[in-house]
Write a structure and sequence with these properties.
This protein is an alpha+beta fold and about 220 residues long. It has one domain (about 20-220): archaeoglobus fulgidus dsm 4304 fold. It has five helices and eight strands, in the order αβββαβαββββαα. It has an eight-stranded mixed sheet with strand order 3-2-1-4-5-8-7-6, sandwiched between helices. β2 (about 50-60) and β3 (about 65-75) form a beta hairpin. α2 crosses α3 (about 120-130). The longest helix is centred in the last third of the chain and has 17 residues, at about 205-220. The two termini are about 25 Å apart.
């Protein structure tokens, strides 16, 4: 299957221009955060089956109040910086299925920290016009300094070409590897950082950690 990557790059650039970096919600009043994640039956085969999950977490208790899991087929190959074209259709399948609608969505991937400012969290946030935050475990793009080893320390991730702030690298626990947080849509970076810290007991914030956990459990049930 052939893909016109230049055309997809243009779509990403246009998507990046639509990001709204203003707070739609009052972060002090947020109650429910949805974490979203995917897992694939085979990383090498294409198309392949996939599982997508949404874990809704109560910010007051950090306990899950709902899980939604959907089994689907993905037919776009893994290409770095084009993750949304592989994963977004699956995310959209669970987005509206929760009975307890999250006020904020954490996506396991990048938001604005992307060469064209449109990672999977931005694609999702712009497409659904929701409050979305990118929460990634690894570095994709941008320059930054390592934050201090204490929980809550962060440093800004900047575009090496323009110096624009793309997101932050945040320490969620003392002396553990930091994570990469960036705006998906309809939120400011300080508010995104505050919500990620507020919802983190371990390295990964509870919404996306639990979304990942439920997928691993389902994988075992299916024998993947």
């Amino acid at each position: 299957m052939n893909f016109n990557l230049e055309k997809l790059k243009k779509l990403q650039t246009e998507c990046g221009k639509k990001i709204k970096e203003t707070d739609r919600i009052d972060v002090e009043k947020v109650r429910y955060i949805g974490g979203m994640d995917l897992t694939f039956k085979s990383l090498k085969e294409n198309p392949t089956e996939a599982l997508v999950s949404l874990a809704v977490v109560d910010l007051k208790t950090l306990k899950p109040v709902e899980f939604v899991v959907h089994r689907t087929v993905v037919d776009f190959p893994y290409i770095p910086t084009f993750l949304a074209f592989r994963e977004l259709p699956a995310l959209l399948k669970v987005y509206s299925k929760s009975k307890i609608q999250p006020e904020v969505f954490f996506i396991d991937g990048q938001g604005k920290i992307h060469p064209r400012k449109c990672g999977i969290a931005t694609h999702f946030g712009v497409k659904t016009d929701t409050v979305a935050v990118g929460v990634a475990k690894s570095h994709l793009y941008g320059v930054y300094k390592e934050p201090c080893q204490q929980r809550g320390c962060y440093s800004l991730v900047k575009d090496p070409k323009t110096g624009e702030i793309l997101g932050a690298v945040l320490r969620t626990r003392n002396n553990v590897k930091p994570i990469f947080v960036s705006v998906g849509n309809n939120i400011t970076l300080p508010s995104a950082l505050k919500l990620v810290l507020k919802s983190s007991k371990y390295r990964i914030p509870e919404p996306t950690r639990l979304a990942h956990y439920i997928l691993q459990k389902k994988r075992k049930e299916l024998g993947w």
